[in-house]
Amino acid sequence: MVEFKHITDIPTLMAWREEVIEAVFGQSPDKKLLDSNRDYFARHIADGSHIAVSASAAGTDMGCGGVCFQEELPSPDNPTGRCAYLMNIYVREPFRHKGVGESIIRYLVGVARKRGCFKIYLETSEMAETLYRSIGFMPMKGMMKIDCELPRRSEM
Q1: How far is CA 127 from CA 16, 37, 123, 124, in A?
Q2: Cβ distance 102 to 135 under 8 Å?
Q3: pTM for the structure as a whole
Q4: Those residues with Cβ within 8 angstroms of residue 70's Cβ, 6 or more apart along the chain or in another chain
Q5: Is 60 helix (H, G, I), strand (E, B) or coil?
Q6: Cα separation of 93 and 100, whole Å?
Q7: Into how many domains does the chain fold?
């Protein structure tokens, strides 16, 4: 059985985040990116706009995930205006394809629903899209994004 622990201490959050960045992007984050993540966690964990969890069984950490809470203008499809953005969903290699990722997602969706979020969304890789669809996530109609060139390090 998967157990969830809310993570509030910055060192643990940072260890998970660094592991996720290395696994997803295939590179170690530089100091500037780590500092930005640390600042993000310090602000948003403290004010409750981000909740991070780890998933474990028998004392072994298997994965993690987070949910970021935002507010937009209320609309017919989101009357509260409350939104939840799932992020940093990650399962360590030995525990993949065993229901851990699904457990993390369902847990975070439950947290978001308890906060009155009518709009819960995420970004996905092709590898995880089937999992998200099996839980009930669907592509968001009408969404687009613009890729902005990242500033050069000398401009940051």
Answers
A1: 20, 25, 12, 8
A2: yes
A3: 0.89
A4: 49, 82, 83, 84, 85
A5: strand
A6: 11
A7: 1
| 77 Cβ contact list (under 8 Å, min separation 6) | 118, 119
Query: pLDDT (tens digit, 9 = 90+) per residue, 103-153?
Result: 999 999 999 999 999 899 999 888 889 999 999 999 888 888 788 776 665
The pLDDT of residue 156 is above 80: no
Domain enclosing residue 59, as ranges: 3-155
Average pLDDT of the residues of the chain: 93
Distance CA 147, CA 76 (A): 29
Distances (CA, A) of 47 to 10, 24, 40, 68, 79: 14, 27, 11, 11, 23
| Predicted confidence (pLDDT) per residue in 68-83, tens digit | 999 999 999 899 999 9
Tokens of 51: 């909740």
Question: How many angstroms separate the CA atoms of 41 and 122, rounded?
Answer: 19
CATH code, 32: 3.40.630.30
- Residue given tokens 């799932």 in the structure block: 86
Look at residue 112 and give its three-state secondary structure. helix
Q: Tokens for 153, please give them.
A: 């390090």
Both structure tokens of 34: 């780590």
